[in-house]
Amino acid sequence: HVQLVASGGGLVQPGGSLRLSCVASGCGFSFAAIGWYRQAPGKQRELVATITRGGSSVYADSVKGRFAISSDNAKNTVYLQMNSLKPEDTAVYFCNVLSVTGSTFWGQGTQVTVST
Q1: Distance from C-alpha of 22 to C-alpha of 76, rounded to nearest angstrom
Q2: 81-104 tens-digit pLDDT
């Protein structure tokens, strides 16, 4: 009964910033890794960034230097700080959780639109 609730999406102009949050909840839930994925119209879903429980992170080349992922392990929450946003960042952003038991879960997604 794990649920992921994402928030923080919206409309922003190019060069602006946005902060996404994803909270994972469930009975006795604990995560091993949490990642942010995005899918734009007509494109495949791609990994944006991921972070492990130990704090190691990986970023897609397209967002390096602009996005930052962080987590609050005690609250099973992950954040994605998005700076210097570009129109090509427009997509539905999904959080994905890998639990310590090996199960994976997807959030519903939050829309990020970067446009003038």
Answers
A1: 8
A2: 999 999 999 999 999 988 888 889
